[in-house]
Queue: 3 jobs
Job 1
Amino acid sequence: MTNGLHLATRMRRTRASGWSRALHGETVLTPADLIWPLFITAGDAQEPIATLPGVSRWSISQIVDRAKEARDLGIPCIALFPNTPRDLRTDDGREALSPDNLMCRATRAIKDAVPDIGVLTDVALDPYTAHGHDGLIDDKGYVLNDATVEVLVDQSLNQARAGADIIAPSDMMDGRIGAIRAALEEEAFPNVQIMSYAAKYASAFYGPFRDAVGAAGLLQGDKKTYQMDPANAEEALREVALDLEEGADSVMVKPGLPYLDIICRVKQAFEVPVFAYQVSGEYAMIEAAVAAGAGDRDKLVLETLLAFKRAGCSGVLTYHALHAARLLNG
């Protein structure tokens, strides 16, 4: 009998007990790393979303209750998305500019009742247009960049006046960050942040979200002329560089898990706050795996969120935010 190998370095040494694994952990996930996306409805009742099991649309009063839940669990910010009634959707998306639209009413209600939670508001026209695109279109269906930016500026100011803390343009129009930043400065909103959807890909993972905001079936064509090609990585770095030059305070990569390489490259190249959106299709896949008995929800949720932090994210937008915060708070 021998005493086995005499190794100076044994990588398993620090993994042998729980206290040691905790001591040597390189990445930490807390509720403060989470942003909870919430859907607003014009109705008074909770509306479950069939393609997003466990996710609902909420009335404005219910959204306030969700904000209180988030705050109490240590989630620092919520993200709002409206399900605009069909009769208010027009080709020019004019409801986006109404101070009494769902987004603005919900923002005011939350900031009145829960002033210590951050409110992130989506800036894009797809929840308001009859054709489902993120901007204005010409007679051939092409999204007009500069004309759309003018509307996005007004939409951003509308949301800032309602009390938004973070303006999050998700439209992918060229030049919109600079235009929005200039308008916020001119209108005396110097502390309203811009989190740019800087690298938003034309992804197959967005389907359930479109159901949630009532855009499913409305979209004419696709969004490939403004959202990014999933094949491209260098282009993402160019997009991020431009948005930072124009005044973005933080940037987002969307979707999340299929683009961890992009998150890592952006963080390494720019050393700025990078966020990921774990999108509806990613959430739905986890829930489908759990329903099929193919995975443990708690472990799947925490492992995927940890992957975002490990890749370089400052935070993650996730529909699992409430569940994850409860797990992390133990």
Job 2
Amino acid sequence: MSFAAFAQPPLDRLIADASTAQRLTLMLGAGASIEAGLPNWPALIERLLVRAGTERGLLHDTDEAGRTRWVAEAVRRDGYLGAAAIVDALTDESVLDTWIPEALYGVGCTAADFFPGPICRQLPRLVDAFGPACELMTTNYDDLAEQAMRDDPLNPREAVAYVGEHREVPRDAVQVVHLHGYAGRDGAAGRLVLTESDYQRMQQTVSWQETRVRAALGAGMFVFVGTSLVDPNLVRYLYGDAGAATPPRYAIFVRQDTYEEGVPAGVPVAREEAVRARWSAVGVTAVFVDHYVDVAQLLYEMARAKQLGDAYVPLPDRARDWVETVQTQLLGIGDNDAFVRGQEVFGAQLRSALSSAIAAAEALEGRRWQEKLAVTMWLIDTDATHLINRVTTDRLHLDQETVEPVEIDEHARWVAVRSYCRGLPLAETRDIYASRWHFIRGTPLVIDTKRHGRIPVGCLTTASMKGRDDTMLNAMDDIVEARFNQALSTNVLALLNQPFR
């Protein structure tokens, strides 16, 4: 899929509906947590199963095979809800309240250990666009949505987790409704919906969760994001409302990581048609995007369309204008002499950007980086179907015809492409006899300007001649890495903005 899909059904209908919707409810699922490095619900249950079995003396710390089989048998025989019931039966409630945050974040974690991913970082834009008419709901326990509000670089604001009881919400604060409970890094916690008994209890009475969700389903546009829609409560709410005349409802699904490389083309097509038919029966339009990066972009497009109305320009048109301007006015594409000059000038500027990023990391760590690094700038082509190695600091491209575009595909061997698809930094060891670069880190490149808005335009790869065990690119902690990535991408984005000044 290229950016062209954002101007075609059903994505264009979703964006158009958002532009005219009076109210919007966004339901966040596990995808928003997974992209930040937190476990999904099955992985959380597995961690709790191991701990429960170990604490009760049923398992031994050193028996890895036994722990693996213990989890596999519980899941195979009882399913994950039944496995959660086993955890509940083997532990006291007060103990479980402590275990769950530790299984979710890790022992002794802080706010700096996890950062909101691309999906959560678009929540403030939707709140900006819809104001109080934007309601945020989640089945996740974590506090990433709240952190995204507090850390928003454009308009930081307070966020309050709602778990059923009345809590005073400060003026201009955003409420995040946690349908399955809350376990934040601030130590605050609410009752968690985790086990089989919790789900059964909610079905026997009209819970506050059911009242809240059904009211939202009838009040305005409703969009499911990052969820597989297998939660029994959400399914029950939808079927309970089936056949009614409702505002638009959408569920955004991601193809990435769903199928292995080389799966017959007919399998995904048939599966997606079945999913569309299933959710259409309860008034939900299933929308499929290729990559995780597309989900955050789709949320942004919804917010931008709502804010601009008739002045909204679709993503493919904005991206094409940006790419063509950068290619001709900055990189000299189409003119051999201008191309070579562009390589020399931009290559020097890129080396300066790398030096600034290294200096920022060194200042935080208090030590010098004694190694040789190189940076390569990969940019999308005009229809965003390929990434192209446009400039690198360790050599010059002298003939633009020898630069081969790489298809944007989740299975690509290039770390730049895979990092771009996920919208997240990635790193890998590269042991190729013909290359002197042995460790590579990819950093997605996203512009966000008044003229073009937010567009994922490429990726930066930083390479070291040292291996994983010796390079600072791998040794730096999360805070230093974030500062390095920020300094590098900010400087490069400033360079790319030169033709638009």
Job 3
Amino acid sequence: MPQSLITGAYPATRLRRVRQHDWARRLVRETKPSPDDLVWGMIVHDGKEPRVSVKSMPGVDRLNVDEAAKAAVRARELGIPAIAIFPHINPARKNEGGDEAVNPEGLVPTVIQAMKAAAPEVGIACDVALDPFTSHGHDGLLSDDGYVLNDETVSVLTEQALIQARAGADIVAPSDMMDGRIGAIRTLLDEEGYDNVMILSYAAKYASAFYGPYRDAVGTASVLKGDKKTYQMDFGNTEEALREVAMDIQEGADMVMVKPGLPYLDIVQRVSSEFGVPTLVFQISGEYAQIKAAAAQGWLDEDKAIVETLSAFKRAGASGVITYFAERAAQLLGK
């Protein structure tokens, strides 16, 4: 290279100029996650103990009703818009059909009512699926040969969603991946006068190895028979995800979700760009556990990893992120 270029104006554009100071980096930063982007993933339980730690998810506790209500107040204080609740049910209340899922006096309706009474400004999203309630750990009803029945399951899911809406849920979030359940739920909610209750569809939910800690948290790991590959998506597929999303939007979903998170950023990007609808992503239990485990070993900085991963989701096009890190993330992002 000619010496004149090295000592003269070369190069005319120096992109490093805007990286040299913290204030400059903040000024030109393209993606800036905030507490407004967060949905607090929360495990609730039907016991008397205020908190029960989840061994495979350090820092996450199952909360009883009173603690869940306090957490709703905490979410309001931190500016977290919404909480997504997932139940751990006493095994004595589980059966093959997951009947406890449609108990209007059960854990989930009780928690919804307590949280809305404590902090009505915080949105409450409820998981619509049968796996926490069934003795076999699947998301639906089983045939005699162990196949998850689609239409029979949808019938129960619609009743479950209606009970949640009656209890005060702002969002019902079907995570079961049964075909046609969004349309069935939307129809029933509208008929019953709950036309303002939103549906967040787990539209592209993959059969993933990263769900293990969550199954410990809600008590399905020890009872799950087989896998969920006949209804959750194959992790090799992209076009199928777009078909799933398109179907759920057509059936009335207000928001859609991609799950898991980091291993599926390409799906988040395609869904958000091709459909232009509110697209959430779930930073699931295995992703949470990875960061916690590495941080415990001193292999990475936990706080920095939280912010970086949230930025990745936003950069890919996510409207919001369900995460078990929400409380800490809101503290970091609110500074």
